[in-house]
Structures are given as structure tokens and as C-alpha cells.
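For the sake of transparency, this paper describes our internal protein records without simplification. The record that follows is passed on verbatim for readers who wish to inspect the format:
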Amino acid sequence: MTSTSTPPNLPNYFKSYLPKRAQIPPLKIYPPPQLPEPHNELLPLSYELHQDNTPEKRVLLLIPTMNADKGQLMETQLRKRLPNNTEIYCLGFEGASSGVGEQPYNEAGMTGAFNRIDHAMILNRVSPQIIELVVKRRITTIIYAAIESFITRPGWPPARPGEAAIEEPVDYAYIVLYNPVTGVVKTGVSEGVEVPRAYCEEAQKYGFSDPVNEDLIKTFGGEKGQREVPEEAVGNHGNVTVGEIMAANIRDLDKRNWQKLLTNEKACRYRLIEDTLEKMDIPW
């Protein structure tokens, strides 16, 4: 006989009090925010590449992600914009942690993208596959590409002069392209999609992996992860994604692309990323 009970060690994210699809009004789409300048310094390349006197370039695109759709999207975009006399070889791989939890908030989105590249470079220093590819294909340039989706809470980043502050949580994607041969870094941020507040609040109840201000939480009588306490009292490295909570409560929803269903296909996570990449300079 087949059991239909929930395995004891798996969390059950279904909550009857969360709104269903019909109860969620159309979500707003916001322009890219003006984020603070990143202060992250990326590692230099630790080995030499092939050098010759010909004009041909052979680029190795390295994509540290577990999301195959994001990786394919970046590869397609760079292939479409190849300069003359340039070949490109692409490799996606896992294991390069963002270091900012499953659900980044606020500036953790920027930090996570830079962390992925730094961790990928450390992994690749001792990767026989990478070294063999560099030698076999006589690679002359390397580009690392990382995408980190993140949610901004109301009030961050501060509104531009003359613009009203955004009063709802919003989901964006932050993109970093890094050429460790030249040291050039290019960044971009996508348009954003409003996150239903109830789902953002629910995800935060599962806590954070970065330190939180327990004294401030106690002062306001709240519990860790609840939005009733000030923002400085909660972390930015969420343990559970908003998409996970949504997928457990809304039928036919893709946890990695919930934007498509909840905007009636006016927005799609991958299309938003694609549009951003098209506007970015590539550090060839």
C-alpha cells in the first residue's frame, strides 16, 4: 500500500492562511533600482593563458550556477554578441556557493553574485577539466558570469530624488561579468517584480543564516524573522526562498519563475535577465 503522508524530516510549507492565486492582485513591475556601488574585489587569475600574435580570440565562459536555465541564457546571449575573429567555449558547473543563503535580501544579492565568482575561481585553480580545456583550446580570455536573484525590502535601496519610495518587497536579478585577464567587471540589475507581502513575510519566518540583532528583537517583543520588528533586527541571508513557499501554496507555479504565473505572463524571470544582459557591456 502506498503512503501519502509527508516524510517526517521535510518541512511543510503549505499554510492555509496564505493567499491563493485568485486572491493576489496583479503584481507591479518596477524599473531597475539604483544600487550602491559594489566594493567587492575579485580574485586575479592564478595561471597564464595562451598568447600569440594572431588577431583570433578564444574565450572560455565559466558559469557557476546550479540553474541550467540561467546558464543557457547567459551562453546564448554571449554567443549572439561575439566580436569578429572570436570563438567561445562554455562550461557551467556547481559547487560555487553564494554564501548568502537560499533567499538573499537587499545588498546580499550583490554580495552573492561576487561570492559565486570568487568561489568559482578558487575551485577552478585545481580543476583538471578547466586546465585541460584552457590548454587544448588555447584559450586567450576567460569570462566568469554570475546571476543572483534577490528581494529588496521596502525602503532599500533609498529612493532616487523626486521618486516615491517603493512600499512593497520586490524581486530583482543582479548580474556580474568578470574578465580576470583584464580585471574588467561589468554589472547589471534587472527590472523587478513585486513580491506578495504575505509570502515574503512567511519565508522570513524560517530564519536567516547570518547574524541578527537578538537584543533589538526582544526590545520590540517580536520573534526572529517576523516583519513586525525593524529591518536592522533581521538578517539578509534567508533560509527559504519565497518561491518555495509559493510553490507549496499556489497550483501550477514554478518556484524558479513564479513571476510568469503571477503577472499573467507580463513578466518572466528569464526574459528579465535576458533584457538586462542585452544592455550590458561584455568584458571581452
